[in-house]
Amino acid sequence: MSRTVLVVGAGIAGLSTARALGRHGLECRVVERRRHRSPAGLGLNLPGNAVAALATLGAADDVRAAGVPVTRREYRTAGGRLMFALDEALFWSGTAGSICARHQVVLDALTAGVSVDHAVAVASLEQQADGSVEVRFADGSEDRVDFVVAADGVHSTVRSALAPAAPRPSLMTAASWRFITADPGVDCWTAWTSRGRTFLLIPVAPGEVYAYASSSQGGDTAADPTWLADAYADFPEPVTRAIAQALAAPAPPYHAPVEEVRIPTWHHGRVTLVGDAAHATGPVWAQGAAMAMEDAIVLADVLAGTEDWSTVGPVWEQVRRPRVEHVQAATDQMSRLAGLPPWLSHPLAPVMGPRAYRAAYRPLRTPPPSATPTP
Question: How does pLDDT run across 86-95, given as a tens digit for each residue?
Answer without folding.
Answer: 999 999 999 9
